[in-house]
Write a structure and sequence with these properties.
By secondary structure, the chain is an alpha+beta fold. 44% of the residues lie in helices and 15% in strands.
Length: 599
C-alpha cells in the first residue's frame, strides 16, 4: 500500500526534497516513486514494487497525485466520454480519471468517486485534497509560515516540516479517555488530520474545508417494495464484492458469523468468473479453546461455497513490542488488538495473498437497532411499534425492559443526558475503579452523550470521529504488504441501507434479521440459524501478559491525569482482569509507550 505527499510553498518554487523526505519517512509504503511539480507545489506518491497503487498525472494546467484504489474509474471515464470530456481516458489510470473529472465536474468530483484513496490536485497556486468518503485512506497536514504539507501518515508530515517528533499529551489523554472528535489532531504534536468526507483547499487564502458528502438526507427515504429492495441489495452487494477483488492474490478473511460468509458467497462466483480459480479463505482457529474456536463453522462455509480454506493458530501477544507498534502507528490505538491484526495480515501475505476481503463494518451498515422503539414512537409509527413490542413480549422480554427502550422518546433529551452522566462513572459503569474520568475535562459529558444517541444518530455513528483504528489498520496493512477491502462499506451499498425505513430495516427482533432473510439461499442455513455469536474474550484473557503490563504501567515514569496508579498496581498484581479492564489497561500501556518513545 502506497502513500501520497505534497508541499505547497508560500512563495517561490517547491523543494522537491521535502516530498522525497516525506515519502522516505514511511518505507513500509514502498520504494517506488513518482513525482510532479507545478508552480509552487510538488506532489509525490510511493508504492510497493509489483503492486502499484500510486499515480500522478498532468494536463498542462493541473497536476494530480492519487494513492489507493479507484473502484469506478471505468464508469467515470465513460461518463466523461458521454459529455465530450477526456476522450480516450484510461479508466485504469486513476490519476488521469480524477484530473479529467475535476476539469469537468469541479469540486463535485470528490463525491462521485468510489474506492479507498487519498487525492491531491493542484494548479500550482492552490491545492485541493480529499480522501474516500469513509476515510479508509488517511491524510494528515500542517500549515506553517513557509508551506502547506500533506501526507498519508503523520510521521511523514513531521519529516517534511523538519520537526523533531513530540507526543501531544493533551491528545493522548483525550484518546485514552475517549474525549475526541473529528477535530482532534494527531498524537504527534503539530499535525492535523483531514476529516472524512471533507474537501480541503489550501492556498493564499489559508486552509478552508467543506463537507462533500453528508448522508443524513438519505435516511428513510426509500419507498420501493420489499421485492425491489431485495433485488437492489443483491445487485449492490454483488457489485461491491466484484469491485474489491483484485483478480490476483485475493483472499477472504472468514469467520463463522454472517458477515464474512456473505462476502464470500458473493465474491466467490465473481472471482471464478474473473480468474477461473476458486476464491481462497483464511481463518484463525483455536483448537485449545473450544469456547472461541469456529473451525467447524468455517469448514462448513468453505465446503458449501467451494473456497480454498487456509487456517492458522493465533500466537500473537497483545503487548509484545509495544514501543515499536506505537512508533509505527504514530500513536496509541484504543479498543483493538493491533498485534492480532498484524499476525492475520502477515499470515495472509506469507501465503502469497495481496488483497483481503473482510466482513468488517457490516454491523454499522445494517444492524444499528438501538433506540428503535423510541424512534418508532417519536415518529408516530404505531403499527410497527405495536408489532415490535408484541414480538419482544413473545420472546419473554419484560414490560419494564420495553418501557426503558421507550424512555428516550418520552423524556427530554437534557434530562436523559443528566441521567446517563450519573451512570457513566458510578458503580454500575464499565470504567475500572482505578480510573477517575471526572479529572478529565469533558470525559463524563462525552460518555453521557454516547449513551444518549437517538436512532437517527445511531445509523450515522460510523461517520463520526477521527477513525483512529482505520488509520492504524492502514499502516498495519502496508507493513504486512496487503490491502484490506471491506465490501459492506461500499458507499452505494451503505447509502441503500441508510435509505431504508426503520421498520423495513428491522422487520423482526432477531439480530441481523433482515440479512438472515435476504441471504437465505446464498449463505448456508446453519450459519444463518446459529443461535449464538462467538465471543473471543477467552482468547484475549488467556493471552494477558501481566509482566508486560507491569513494565509499561508500573515501572514507567509516565503518569496520565485521571489514573489512580496505586489501584492499578494492585489490579495488575491480582492478575485477574476481565477483558473490559484489560482493554483499558492495554490502551493506557500504549499511551505510556508512545510518550516513552519520543521522550
Amino acid at each position: 500500500m502506497g502513500a501520497l505527499s505534497l508541499v505547497l510553498a508560500r512563495a517561490g518554487g517547491p523543494d522537491r526534497r521535502v516530498v522525497e523526505r516525506m515519502l522516505a519517512a514511511a518505507p513500509h509504503r514502498g520504494a517506488e516513486r513518482a513525482m510532479l511539480s507545478l508552480g509552487r507545489c510538488a506532489l509525490g506518491v510511493s508504492w510497493a514494487t509489483g503492486r502499484r497503487d500510486g499515480f500522478v498525472a498532468f494536463d498542462g494546467a493541473r497536476a494530480v497525485a492519487f494513492s489507493g484504489r479507484l473502484d469506478n474509474g471505468g464508469d467515470i471515464a465513460k461518463e466523461l466520454a458521454d459529455v465530450g470530456v477526456g476522450a480516450g481516458i484510461d479508466g485504469d489510470d486513476p490519476a488521469a480519471v480524477v484530473l479529467a473529472a475535476f476539469a469537468a465536474f469541479g469540486h463535485d468530483v470528490a463525491e462521485r468517486l468510489r474506492g479507498v484513496y487519498a487525492v491531491a490536485i493542484t494548479d500550482g497556486r492552490s491545492v485541493w485534497c480529499f480522501r474516500d468518503h469513509l476515510g479508509f485512506r488517511p491524510l494528515f497536514y500542517r500549515r506553517d509560515g513557509d508551506a502547506f504539507l500533506a501526507a498519508s501518515e503523520a510521521k511523514q508530515v513531521v519529516a517534511g516540516a523538519g520537526m523533531a517528533p513530540q507526543p501531544d499529551l493533551d491528545v493522548l489523554q483525550a484518546i485514552f479517555f475517549g474525549v475526541y472528535d473529528d477535530e482532534t489532531p494527531s498524537a504527534l504534536r503539530g499535525v492535523e488530520r483531514l476529516r472524512k468526507s471533507t474537501l480541503l483547499v489550501a492556498g493564499d487564502g489559508g486552509v478552508r474545508r467543506r463537507t462533500y458528502w453528508d448522508p443524513r438526507s438519505l435516511l428513510e427515504t426509500d419507498r420501493s417494495s420489499d421485492d425491489d429492495r431485495r433485488a437492489r441489495f443483491e445487485d449492490l452487494l454483488r457489485r461491491a464484492s466484484a469491485r474489491t477483488l483484485d483478480g490476483a492474490g485475493d483472499v477472504v478473511s472468514l469467520s463463522g458469523g454472517i458477515d464474512s460468509p456473505a462476502i464470500a458467497a458473493y465474491a466467490a462466483p465473481e472471482h471464478l468468473r474473473l480468474t477461473g480459480e476458486r476464491l481462497s479463505a483464511l481463518s484463525t482457529v483455536y483448537p485449545d479453546l473450544p469456547s472461541v474456536d469456529e473451525s467447524s463453522w468455517v469448514h462448513l462455509v468453505a465446503d458449501r461455497l467451494d473456497l480454498d480454506l487456509h487456517t492458522y493458530r493465533r500466537t500473537a501477544r497483545p503487548l509484545v513490542a509495544l514501543d515499536e507498534q506505537v512508533r509505527l502507528l504514530d500513536g496509541p490505538v484504543p479498543g483493538i488488538l493491533v498485534n492480532d491484526a498484524m499476525e492475520h495480515y502477515a499470515t495472509a501475505a506469507s501465503l502469497g495473498f495481496t488483497t483481503m476481503l473482510t466482513g468488517e463494518m457490516a454491523e454499522f451498515v445494517f444492524d444499528q437497532r438501538r433506540y428503535l422503539l423510541a424512534h418508532l414512537l417519536r415518529t408516530g409509527r404505531f403499527a410497527p411499534l405495536r408489532r415490535h413490542v408484541g414480538m419482544q413480549r413473545n420472546k419473554g422480554v419484560a414490560a419494564g425492559a420495553i418501557a426503558r427502550q421507550l424512555t428516550p422518546a418520552l423524556v427530554p433529551r437534557a434530562a436523559w443526558v443528566r441521567y446517563n452522566r450519573t451512570r457513566s462513572v458510578g458503580p454500575r459503569s464499565r470504567i475500572p475503579a482505578w480510573l477517575e474520568p471526572r479529572a478529565v475535562p469533558g470525559a463524563v459529558e462525552r460518555y453521557a452523550e454516547r449513551t444518549t444517541l437517538d436512532w437517527t444518530e445511531q445509523q450515522l455513528a460510523a461517520f463520526d470521529g477521527p477513525g483512529l483504528t482505520t488509520e492504524a489498520d492502514t499502516i498495519t496493512e502496508a507493513a504486512a504488504g496487503i490491502v484490506v477491502r471491506r465490501p459492506w462499506a461500499d458507499v452505494d451499498l451503505w447509502e441503500f441501507f441508510l435509505s431504508l425505513p426503520a421498520e423495513a430495516k428491522f422487520p423482526n427482533v432477531t439480530r441481523k434479521g433482515l440479512m438472515r432473510e435476504w441471504l437465505r439461499g446464498r449463505v448456508p442455513d446453519e450459519i444463518l440459524d446459529r443461535p449464538t455469536k462467538t465471543v473471543f474474550n477467552d482468547s484475549i484473557v488467556e493471552r494477558i501478559d501481566y509482566g508486560e503490563l507491569r513494565r509499561w504501567l508500573v515501572a514507567s515514569p509516565v503518569r496520565i491525569p485521571g489514573v489512580r496508579y496505586d489501584r492499578l498496581e494492585e489490579r495488575i498484581a491480582a492478575r485477574d482482569m476481565d477483558v473490559r479492564e484489560f482493554d483499558w489497561a492495554k490502551d493506557l500501556a500504549a499511551v505510556h509507550a508512545f510518550v516513552g518513545v519520543w521522550s
